[in-house]
Structure formats: C-alpha cells, structure tokens
Predict the 3D structure of the following.
Amino acid sequence: MTDVTPTQRAQAWLTRFEAALQAGDGPGVAALFGEECYWRDLVTFTWNLHTAEGRADVSDLVAARAADVQARRFVLEADATEAGGVTEAWFTFETAVARGRGLLRLKGDEAWTLLTTMTELKGYEEKEGTRRIMGAEHGAQRGGRMSWLERRQAEQAALGTTEQPYVLIIGGGQGGIGLAARLRRLGVPTLIVEKNDRPGDSWRNRYKSLNLHDPVWYDHLPYLPFPDDWPVFCPKDKIGDWLEMYAKVMELNYWSRTVAEKAQWDEDRQEWEVRVVRDGQPVTLRPKQLVFALGVSGYPSVPKIAGAETFEGTQHHSSKHPGGAAWAGKKAVVLGANNSSHDICADLWEHGADVTMIQRSSTHIAPSAALMDLALGGLYSEQAVANGITTEKADLIFASVPYRIMHTFHIPVYEEMKRREADLYARLEAAGFMLDFGEDGSGLFMKYLRRGSGYYIDVGASELVANGSIKLRSRVGIERINPKSVTLTDGTELECDLLVYATGYGSMNSWLADLISPEVADKVGKCWGLGSNTTKDPGPWEGELRNMWKPTQVPNLWIHGGNLHQSRHHSQYLAMQLKARMEGIPTPVYRPAPSHHVR
Amino acid sequence: MTDVTPTQRAQAWLTRFEAALQAGDGPGVAALFGEECYWRDLVTFTWNLHTAEGRADVSDLVAARAADVQARRFVLEADATEAGGVTEAWFTFETAVARGRGLLRLKGDEAWTLLTTMTELKGYEEKEGTRRIMGAEHGAQRGGRMSWLERRQAEQAALGTTEQPYVLIIGGGQGGIGLAARLRRLGVPTLIVEKNDRPGDSWRNRYKSLNLHDPVWYDHLPYLPFPDDWPVFCPKDKIGDWLEMYAKVMELNYWSRTVAEKAQWDEDRQEWEVRVVRDGQPVTLRPKQLVFALGVSGYPSVPKIAGAETFEGTQHHSSKHPGGAAWAGKKAVVLGANNSSHDICADLWEHGADVTMIQRSSTHIAPSAALMDLALGGLYSEQAVANGITTEKADLIFASVPYRIMHTFHIPVYEEMKRREADLYARLEAAGFMLDFGEDGSGLFMKYLRRGSGYYIDVGASELVANGSIKLRSRVGIERINPKSVTLTDGTELECDLLVYATGYGSMNSWLADLISPEVADKVGKCWGLGSNTTKDPGPWEGELRNMWKPTQVPNLWIHGGNLHQSRHHSQYLAMQLKARMEGIPTPVYRPAPSHHVR
C-alpha cells in the first residue's frame, strides 16, 4: 500500500472537517484536532478575532456557530507540504455570506493549528481586476454628466456636512489611512480626522534622524506596495510623502487640521455624536461607527519627579524631541533605555552632546540586521519574495501561529541571536547595561505584543553604549530635578541642560477617557497585550490582543493600530466587520472578549 | 528519430547565432535568417532603435557591430513554444557592456523576427530588489548626518543653480515624468521644466469630460503600476493626481511654472545653454543632454480661413476648449472629425447645444470595447495578466512585431471589427459619414503610428452622429467665416455661436524651430511616422518612428513621447542611451537615421 501523500492527508482532513461542520457536530470536529490544538478564526466563523484553544473550545465554537455559518466548499489551493512531521495546507472555503482562505497544520492526521480568515463578503466584492469600474461612461446622456473631479468634490463637500460618514476614523496616520482605503474599496462612506496639517505629518514631526525600524517588505500599505527600489529602512519624511500621496490617490476623505474633542453615543438615533474642530470651526459629525486609529501608544507617559518645575534647562517627552542639533557641547540626560531613548541618545552624541542614558529596568536589544535575517527573513525579505511568499501569504503565515505558542517559535530565533551577537551583548553588560531577552527568552516581538515596549532595535546606539560614548547609569532612576542638574536615586548628581523623558506611553484607552468618558474607557478596558502574566501584561490569558481590530465591550466603538504589518493585515478584517454591519448582515459575535483591566 | 522540440530548435538556432556573431561572420548570421526577415535591435547592438530588414541588412549589421558588441551567453529563459509553424523563444544575453533580453520567432529553422533589447548596463544596474539602498545608515558618526529630507532639499536647491543637470527634459507630462524616473534610478542628474502650475495639469486643463482613451493595463507608468481597482478609462483629473504623486514619490526634480524660452548648443563647452523663466525669474541651465517631451503633437494647427477676424462668436482650437457647459441652446460648429472633434461634439450635445460636425476627409472609427477586446486584449487586459503576460512582456511582444509587417497583424483585427460593428458602420455611412479603416485596412494603430491622427476611438459620439443628434456636414470645408455664421465650400451657410477648430497639430519639430532655431528643426526633420507612403506619412520607408527615443541628426538632442505604453517602454531605452553617454561608455550609432522631410 502506498504512503498517504501530504495532499491526500490534508484533503481527507478537510473532507471530514466539512462534513462534521455541516452536521453541527462539535465533538466530531474536536476529535479531528489534537489534544494540543488551536483554531484561530478571523471573522468568518466568529465575527470576532478569536482563538479557540483545545478541543473543548473547538467543540464549543462549532456548537455555537456552525449552523449559522454554513461553511462549505473547503478546497485545497495547492498541494500540501510536509516537513518535520507537520503537514501544511492552504485552502479556500465559503460560508453563507462570505469567502475565506485558511492555513492548516496537521500532526499526523490531527489538526494542530487551523487558521480561517475572511477574504470577502459575497455580493460586496471589491471592484478590482475584472470587476474594476470602467471610469468613463461610454455612450452619451443629455443633460451632461458630472466628471470624476466634480463627483469627488461633491462627495468631499457633502461628507460630514449634508451626509454623514458611516465610519469616522479618529487619527490619520498609516493605520487610519490603510483602513480607510479598505473601506473605500468596500463602498463604506468613511471620513478620517487628523489634527496635523498634512497626511504624513505624524512622521514628519518626529526627530530628524528617524527611519522606520521595520524593513520595507514588512511595511507595505494595502493595495499599493512600495516600488522595488524603496529603501530598506524608510526615512521619516519619505514615508510621510508616501502616506500623503496614498491618501490622495486612494481617494480618501481626509480632514486635516481637525481635532476631535468629544464623542458620545446617541442611543435614540443609534449613532455617535462627535464634536470636532476643523480649521478652527466646530463641526458635529454623526457616524454609525467610530474607530480610534491613534497608534499603538496612548498619551505620552511622563513621570512626575520632584522639582521638575524648577528646572532651568529644556525638558520634554521623547515624542516632542526635535533632534540633537542644538546640543553640541551641552549635557543631555535621557531617562529611559528603550527604543526612543537609544535613537535620541545616538543622535545627541552625533551632534556632539554629552549624553547620559538612565536605565531603570532591563532592555531587550535586537540588532537590526540579525532581526531582519533571523526573525523576518523567512517571510518579509527579497528572498521571501523570490520564494513566492507574497505579502498576503506572509501575513497569513504570521497570523496562523497561535499567540499561545508564538513564543516557542521565537525562542530559538533569539537563542541564535544571542550566539551571533555575543560580543556586543558581552560588551553591553560589561558597560553595566541591563539586558534581557524577554522573560521567557522569546525576544522582541513577544515583548512588543505583550507590552508594546521594553526593547531597542539596534541600529547603532548599542555600540555607543558599549564603548562608553553614550554614558550609562543603570539600576537607578531620577530622584529629584534641580535647576541645573538631576539627582539620581543613588544620590549622585548629573549636570543637565536637556532632560528627555523617553518614558513611553500609556494604554490606548486613555484617549477614550478624554474623548468619550472615563466610564467608556473603563468599559473598553486596557488595549493591547495578551494576558501573558509577564511585566505590564497581567493575566488572565486573552488569546488575542486586547480590543484590537475586533468588537469591544462598547458597541460601534473600535480600535485600530499596530505596526505597519499589523495595520495592513488587520485592516482587512476590521473593514469587513464594519461593512457587514453597514449592509445589515447579521454579525453575532462569538465570545466577545470581556475586559479584565481598566488601563 | 524523435522530432525536434521547439526548445531544441530555438536552442540550436541561438547556439549557431552566437557562434557566427563571435566570428563576426555577417553572411553566416544572415544565413540563419529567412529571406523575409527582420532584426529589430533596441540599443544593444546598434546604440540606436533600428530594424534590419532582409539578409543583406542583417549581414551588414553584424559586420559593422559584432566585434565591438561581443554578444554572448544567449540563454533561453524558458521552454520555446510553437504555434502555426512559428517557434517563439524568449532569451537573455550579454554584451561587453550590457545585459539584454530578446524574443525570437523562427519559421522552420530560419529566423523570421528577432528582437534584441537592452535591459541594463553592467556596473550601472538600478538599485532595486536585493540592490536597494538601506535608507538608514546604521552605525553612528560624529558630526551628525543629513537626513533624507535635508539631502533632497539640498539636491533640489543645487540642481539648476550651483550644479547643472546632465539631462534637461522640457515638458513635465507623463513622458517627461516616466523618463525622469528611469534616469533617477540610473543615477543621472535630471531636471524637468514644465510650464503649468503642477504636475498633471496638462491633463487637468483639458475639457471636462475627457478620460484616457486607452485602457488601464496599457497605461502603467514605469515602476509603479496603477492599483488593481483603477478604472479602465481613467478620468483626466485622476491621472493628473497620479502624475503629481508619482513625480513626488519617485523623487523627481521638477520645476513647474517654468517656461523654456531658448536653447542653443555651446560648441566650446560641449553643452546646451537653455534659457528658462521660472516663476517669472530668468534662469540659465547648462545640461549636456536636452530632451523634448512635449507630447505626440506639435503646435495646434489652426487653418487660416477668410473672415475669421470678423467672427463675433467664440472660436478656439480644440486644445483650448473647456467643455460644453456654456452652450445650451446655442449653435456650435466643430471643424474636423477625428478624436477631439467627436469628444467635443458629444459633450456639446450632452449640454444641449445644437452641434454640427464638419468632416473634410474620412475618419477611422474604432469602437472602444471592440478595440480593447480585439486589438489589445491579448496583451493588455485582465485576461492577459491572468495568462502571465506582465506589462514588461506585453511591451516586448508588441515591440517584436516589425513595423514593416505590423499592418498584416492588424488587418484581420479590423476585418473582425468591421463584422462586429457592421450595424454602426452602416448607419454612419447612411448618415453621410466618410469612414475608412486605414489605407490598407490596418486600422487604428497604424494610422496612429503613420500620422498620429485620422481616427476616433468611439466612446459614444458615433451613435450620436449615426442617429443625427450630432449634425454632420461631410465632404465640405469652411470657405468663409462671417460675423454670425460660417459658409461651407458647397455654398451653404450655418449659423454659429461657437466655432471649434478640431484640426489637429503640427509636427513635433515645430517646437524645435521656436525653442532652438529653424535650422536645427530642419536638421532634425519631421518627427513621428514611418515613411509608409500613406496620407501624411510620405516615403521613403524609415523602419522606425522618425526621431523618437533615439539619436537625432543633432547630437545631444532627443525627442521623447508617444502614448502611455510607448512612453513607458521606450523611456527604458532612451534612459540607457543617456546613461551610457554620461558614463563615457562608447555609443557608436549604427546607421543614424537621416532626415528626409523638414516638417
């Protein structure tokens, strides 16, 4: 008897899976999974972003949703592959209202990980490729017709005045912009409000030496990838220009110089009432759906230190730091030792300042080249592209790794990084630097997911710390600020002309407290993090990033954000959840995530 | 004995070809070609755009160039294919200084058509993909560094003032813009001067109802294709926005509101001296190479008609026509019956004007949908994309059809169009319209190549002519213009409030007469056309489009243009010819085309 091929194995599994689903047989489906198993669904089955962990969860999901979802037509996209005892298979499928794509991993004949994602809503397919619009109305009609420009101008004049957007996005950075592009393609009237003067300003306004920390293949926006000569690490002003252009050619409705002041839910009218100030004029907007796209971070976190008001020098949070040019020969103290701090310290040193970094707690250092090579290279690189890993595929492969076990995929990467960069790490520790690799050795991305901070992607500052060019005071904090100096917690004093608080940001829902109300912010709860029970990420285990791209505890209120990869990928799912609601497609949310923490 | 496969046949031919080339054996190479044969070379062998026709031409090309070019490493890119007795094979090759790509067609074992094109210059490869720049200079350097923005600003401030561009492009439409993008990637300092206020204005300033006449797959600019939901026929303002964006994100050096006044060659300094007025300020530029990218057309052609100065209504050339909105209930007369006339007449009718089209000579009518389907569909369509015909491949396939026999490829297309659209054509003729299909039935594209005019891509106006909504007076011209009417050559009189001269454009080298001198314009000679000995395209046969994208009779003077496909494709070859000269690579031009006609 011939061996079963990976394709046969995968096909057999999908056939049994489909049959058991159609029978609504929870235990039957669960029996197809291994004891350690994960089914991550992005919208199709759950109208949520949800990871079922273990057979009981799988069985419950099926019992709750299978009859309604009516999943069928599971078809392999290509031959399945097998490596290390794991069979991998890409497939497509349909539900009653949508089409989907997924990735299956089998150990033997049992499912280990299953990813199901929604690619489009039936009847609401994006008008691309063969469905693209003609653009010209061929034929002739008496009475004249509006040109494209006139229609755009009319739309822009009406939206927010005589016609309300279905979705209002607060925040016009890459998150809001990418989401709005998805929504436009889905025909959802959408408006972005942004406080800065031009799209891209959130980048232009950053310190001079800033480049993206993630390489280009990771960073593409939806629908319009960067040209193939785009630099690997894009300078801030260049990404600013791209965002500005993108907002224009994607025909986004974008109000710049517009500050959102207050939003409240109007229960009678079942819509939001949002007061904004546009170019100094108050405007009331009434969207049905409200999305906050203000970035991974909340408000700048500035510790209150005794004596701060007496300081005679310049002090500001890292988010307000323009660059080091004015500080040659001066004494700069930077409180904090993560990404912003390192960038700012290096830039100050380059401009001839005397710089001291104050490190209160350990930092994970991930050298950029090693990170690109070891962590991202398989999915986001020239080589990956050459291997046929499109951005879309890379995103799905990334998404198919359950958060619960993601750290196990990363630990070997950072063990290799430790070996490869042993010299730098040894010299850093010799200089007194407090290094970590995440609490379980899982490194940068897990730290990012769990707490959004605590690392530095090294693009040169670590060498300066290791060799003493950037002075380091570690295991201390600032006790008191004096007119011309700071006193550290060990009693020593540092002269100081410039004090930069590279002290991070609060939880995203602090925006909500101000813009809506503390009650609503509390109800939504802490944003970001997984509940891993590590520093700044208390349990219980959530299984997905808190409140991101999925229904929150406050109806019609959504949070969008993440890095360029996450924004790009998850904008697809958030856009479809919004579109479904606009079209009146029922969206019963399976296990909406409760809020366990207020901030 | 097994049959020879297409791949074996093509491989054998390439092997013999390479050997004969390396031996410099002109007759030996010629013997590999059929009696009817064409070798079209785009730069690699000839430093020209040149088609050798027949064995004698092939032999001469080899004798003149093979030793210098040192062509080798002819390698099939993929399996060859065979259909209808013709073997087709894609191949790559190298020369002493460049890499190339080509397409071979064999009949039996003899070459019928051979296309050789230059893809890159060795040592001057574009920095894309794996060669892309890092963008961030990792590491740190004392003294600070210029940010990307500062470098861009410094470059833009210096170019044209303290530093001269190597190439000056006069004309900032899609031609100049695409060429400049190529040149930037090749590291050639380039400046565009454009009289309008913003990139894209040459489109924005056209009449309101204008859309591109060619479908989107045909129209992509180099490096950054339109997104996949771009309309099939792009509205004028939308393409304007795209060009503006493209100029920005491709980091082009673009002076708008800049009028070129005079250019003269400085023989001592071996450079051009070009006087421009930028924002009202005179500036002298000194490029080594001067490119005119002012469009397929020269100056508006306005016939001088007796009595024109007595006319009390509005009269203007089609290029100045804003649209029909002001003419409801008024009497409009449009002189001319080609593309602009049809668009303008239809737009006037839609706005309620009483419109009469005056047709002096026959017009080729190609309904847009049929054209897309029959003429372009194989190469530029969703289906083509799905079949793996990339834009680059489509351009090369298009370029591989020798101009001499191109009409034979097109005649069947238009015979099918005649059948498909028989009803419309019959009704047009019944209305008195003078139809043609090109003098040899080869239709639209040949008319375009031969004379750049004489057709209408029908997007609805022909129906209005056929059903009499647009009144037609054919086989007449305007004899005399009166204060409130025009008198036709048959003696009849038409009341007239608006007179539009949809009467075309002169040869491109009329720009040269004004901007440089009549002597230089005469020396360059007529631009465009093939020498087909058809209307407006007198012989002798040229084999390539006169003066386009290749060396002219005036050193360092070049003409760029054509439709979006031609601009896109040929910008590659023009850019490499310019780069080679900048780098001092010898560029001995084989058979520089003499000028046979002055205008």
